[in-house]
Structure formats: C-alpha cells, structure tokens
Amino acid sequence: MINKKNWLLMKKYLDYRLRVDQITKGSLKKEQTHLRYLLQWANDRSFRLSPTIRPTFPEYMLSTRLDGEEGKLSAVYVKKSLATARLFLTWLADNEMGYKSIKQAWVKTIKVKRLSDAPKTKEAVTLEEIRAIAAQPVQTVFERRARAAAVFLFLSGMRIGAFVSLPVQAVDIPNRKITQYPSLGVRTKNRKYGITYLLDIPELLKVIQEWDNEIRSILPANGFWFAPLSPETGKIDQEIISIGEHRSTLARRNIKTWIEDNGLLYHSPHKFRHGHIHYGLEHAKDIADFKAVSLNAMHSSMEITDEFYSVLNNDELQNRISTLGKGHSEKNSNQEKISILKEWIAQLEK
C-alpha cells in the first residue's frame, strides 16, 4: 500500500518543478513516472525512513518494472529514474519539516555503478534515405507538407515538438537560419533559446524552399511552418494560429503515412534528428566542428553529443581505421592527431 503522505509530497514536488523550476509538461510527466517507482519502493513506509529501507532503491530498480513488460529496465531509464529520485529527496530534505534524516551524503549513494546495456546500433536517417524522400513526387498539399517536414527535420535536427510549433517568421531558408525562441511560441526542450542552422545540402534545401514559398503566400508571419490543413477542404487553413498538445502526434502520423505510401522505410521524427547530428559529426574535421554540431543540436554539453550520437557501426569503424594516416605525411598526421586530442582534453577539463 502506498503511503498517502509520500504521495502528497510527490504531488507537491511536481507542482514545485512546474511552477518554480518551470520544466515542460513533457519533462514533468517523465519525472512523475520515475517517482512512481520511488513510491512503490517505499510502500507504506515514510520517506523519512528511506536510508534504512532494504533493498536500497538502486537495487530495487534492477529487478522491477511497472509497465507489465518482461525483462529489466534499460540502463538509461534506471539512471534517469535514480537522478529524479536524488532531486526529489534533496528537495524533500531542504524544504519539508521532519526530513532532516535524509542526508546529502546518503542521497549521493543513489546510483548504480558500472551499469550499462549491451552496445546498440544507433538508428538514424541516412543521407541516401533523405535524398530518396526528397526525390518523391508530390501532388497534394498533404503530400507536399509531409515531404517538406521530413526534409526539414533532417536539415535542422529539430525536435518534433519544436518543429510543429515553429512560426513562419522564425524560418529564414536563404540564410539557413532557424530562430528557436519560446517567446515566438517555439516549444523547445526545457524552454531553451537558440538560433540553429540548416545543413547546406542544395537538393534538400530546394524542397523546403518550395514549401516555404507556398505557405508564405497564404499564411501570416505567426502562422505555422507545418501548416494546419482544413479537414473539409484539405487546403491550408489560414485561420489557425494556435495548436493543441497533440500536434506532434499528428505530424508523426502524417509523415509515416506518406513515407510508407511511397514504399520507403519509415523512421520516427527523432531518427531524423539523429541523422542530422550523425551527418554533422561524420563531416567534422576538428573539435571546433564537433562543438558546432553540438551547439546546433542545442545540447547542453559536448559530452551529451558524444555519448548518444558519436557511435560508429562496424562498417564505419572499419572504414575509418583503414584510412587512418592515408593522404597525409606521417609527421603531419601525427601532429594533427595530437592537436585534436589536446583540444578535446581541454574541452573535457573545463
């Protein structure tokens, strides 16, 4: 049985996160799910007793799940759940009377050492796939919008929530510049502000420029680049200047339908973002290029970019190892490697 006081404290904490820390509703929902595990772990015992409960919360997370699925939770999910628990318990000790028994030294032990999953190949849209998508013929507004959306997601690396809320005035295709400002209504992750840039791939830019020309002749500056369509006429609806919470779902469904109707392999919108970042890293020549890719993806650090995206599959690894040192003198090659390593170490030590 869940302790009612614990449940009320969780609700109070989530309200604090929403109103004071101003996290997004999406992030709030994830934290609520993570904290369900903490509630189940404590069961009918007060969170005051957390340091004495056995098994420990990290041990508990290695052998439980609440979704009814088989097998253990992924290493990434466990780590995120433990991080949420640390934040909540720290808040509890700092803000609620009677919880001083929860010491920061103990909170720091809520982690699992050397926890990792088996290596996985990162799924990402390739340049060949996006070129095939861009080359597909389109006739209707629905088809033109779906094709443009898929190409835009690859060129920009935007998250789908930000993309569907992007107003026309935030898009400058001739300069390949996208203004991701929450003040313009763009739903960025954690309400981050950023100016990002499209990849310079002419045949892909042509596709989104054609769509951009079409919608600018119809929509106002605050209209949406992923233009709403009228269910009655199938044409662009000029009157819609606000979107609902499920706009991202609609975009996913539309893109999926159009891609599969053309006999192409469908990837989720986030895999287009993966493709954007992978393309950038593949063409990065030095640490400055790597940092540019990371900043353009609006990552908070290069470590995030490196951990989640700079993963080579076996063929890529073989090709890169095979070409090491070729095309350069040994002296220049070694000097270049040393320079890059020094830059990378300096960045990590900051």
What would the keywords be for this entry?
350 residues, mainly alpha, hpI Integrase, Chain A, 3 domains, 3-stranded antiparallel β-sheet, 3 strands, 3% strand
Q: Would you mind describing this structure in some detail?
A:
The protein has 350 residues and is mainly alpha-helical. It has 3 domains: 4-107; 127-272, Intergrase catalytic core (hpI Integrase, Chain A, Orthogonal Bundle), CATH 1.10.443; 274-349, no CATH class. It is built from 15 helices and 3 strands. A 3-stranded antiparallel sheet has the order 1-2-3, with no helix packed on it. The longest helix has 21 residues, at 75-95. The chain is elongated. The protein starts with a helix and ends with a helix.
Which runs of at least 5 residues are low in confidence (pLDDT < 50)? none
**What is the topology, as strand order, of the major beta sheet?**
1-2-3
Distance between the termini: 47 Å
CATH third-level topology of the largest domain: hpI Integrase, Chain A
Main sheet properties:
3 strands, antiparallel
- Corresponding CATH architecture of the largest domain: Orthogonal Bundle
Q: What's the level 1 CATH class of the largest domain?
A: Mainly Alpha
Helix/strand class: mainly alpha
- Rounded average pLDDT: 87
How much helix is in the residues? 40-55%
Q: What gross morphology would you assign?
A: elongated
CATH superfamily placement of the largest domain: Intergrase catalytic core
Number of E-type strands: 3
Strand content: under 5%
State the order of secondary-structure elements, H for helix, E for strand: HHHHHHHHEEEHHHHHHH
- The domain tally reads 3
